[in-house]
Design the sequence.
């Protein structure tokens, strides 16, 4: 049977996943191989050096740089508190005394008799890495972190914003294509991950933030609502670090697009169960997709999935999603892989395939315009 390779999304009710949890710099690993961990458990910890505050002490005291040590009240390595005197002049008349106070809490890191400047290092910034998913430690990365293994449902989305979040899935739709409304969001959504199957608007996201929801998942959203949410045009970037109060994931794309039936069925089956989600997205090289993970550590071993990683590429009958106009967001399957190159509107000759959509209609599209839905 003919086949070809194309990147795809994973959408599966049960699989085995591993996630590396690394510190930004070397530190202390707190978990051991074989240990069972909770999603919000700290598995590694370190401290980032604090910011440096430069103080031009000689200018404030009106002295020469090589005289600085004579007027310092603190020496290198001493701890200081904001407002505490670190240097002072010694005039004959005490009313003319000038005192230089520390501008931040921290430590005197450097006193330079060349520049006349004093460097204060603010307290270190603690950094903790959480396990992210319920599971077990299968590897310890020396002084860096761990690898956590979990089992359960796994759904990748098309686009997301916001970092990692945790909360039980709260499915508010009865079928694919139902838009979320502000009226659906109430105090019962606090701490939960809200799931809709159609359009997610800025008004809905804002209401979800107000009630304290952990995250919100939908089929699609308008780019104008994304711009309002972020306050700027995103452009080409890696998302996931936005401080917006919750995590937002769309499973299909931009615009009013119904969530794929398979995705809806999996999320609905997980209603009420604890989920870990991340909005981190990178479209270009090193593709990274937003994800929803619903651990089921007590479940049966995963059923062998048909070519789950698509190591042999795209094949006839494989489920897919069109990711560019004019069929953007449409779900279907590979009807036929066409070997001959065909010319497109741009004038380029490209490889194409025939897509059979859910309504049984067919269309020929460039292979670069589709994305496999990996089961």
Sequence:
């Amino acid at each position: 049977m003919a086949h070809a390779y194309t990147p795809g999304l994973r959408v599966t009710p049960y699989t085995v996943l591993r996630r590396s949890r690394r510190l930004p710099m070397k530190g202390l690993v707190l978990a051991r191989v074989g240990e069972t961990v909770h999603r919000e458990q700290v598995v590694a910890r370190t401290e980032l050096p604090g910011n440096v505050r430069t103080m031009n002490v000689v200018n404030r005291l009106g002295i020469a740089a090589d005289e600085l040590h004579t007027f310092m009240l603190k020496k290198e390595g001493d701890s200081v508190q904001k407002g505490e005197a670190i240097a002072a002049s010694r005039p004959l008349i005490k009313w003319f005394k000038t005192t230089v106070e520390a501008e931040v809490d921290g430590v005197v890191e450097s006193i330079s008799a060349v520049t006349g400047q004093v460097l204060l290092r603010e307290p270190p910034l603690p950094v903790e890495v959480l396990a992210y998913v319920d599971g077990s430690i299968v590897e310890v990365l020396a002084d860096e972190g761990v690898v956590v293994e979990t089992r359960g449902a796994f759904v990748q989305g098309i686009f997301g914003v916001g970092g990692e979040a945790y909360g039980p899935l709260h499915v508010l739709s009865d079928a694919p294509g139902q838009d979320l409304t502000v009226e659906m969001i109430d105090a019962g959504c606090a701490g939960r991950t809200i799931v809709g199957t159609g359009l997610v608007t800025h008004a809905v996201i804002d209401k979800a933030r107000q009630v304290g929801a952990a995250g919100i998942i939908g089929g699609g959203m308008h780019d104008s609502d994304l711009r309002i949410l972020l306050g700027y045009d995103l452009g080409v970037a890696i998302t996931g670090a936005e401080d917006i109060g919750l995590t937002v994931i769309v499973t299909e794309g931009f615009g009013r697009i119904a969530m794929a039936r398979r995705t809806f069925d999996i999320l609905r089956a997980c209603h009420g169960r604890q989920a870990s989600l991340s909005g981190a997205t990178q479209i270009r090289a090193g593709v990274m997709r937003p994800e929803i993970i619903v651990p089921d550590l007590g479940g049966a071993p995963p059923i062998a999935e048909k070519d789950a990683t698509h190591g042999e590429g795209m094949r006839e009958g494989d489920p897919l999603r069109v990711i560019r106009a004019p069929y953007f967001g449409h779900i279907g399957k590979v009807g036929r892989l066409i070997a001959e190159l065909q010319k497109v509107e741009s004038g380029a000759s490209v490889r194409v395939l025939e897509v059979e959509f859910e309504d049984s209609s067919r269309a020929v599209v460039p292979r670069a315009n589709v994305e496999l839905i990996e089961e």
User: Anything to note?
Assistant: The first helix runs from residue 57 to 61. The chain has a mean pLDDT of 89. Residues 52-121 form a domain with the OB fold (Dihydrolipoamide Acetyltransferase, E2P) fold (CATH 2.40.50).
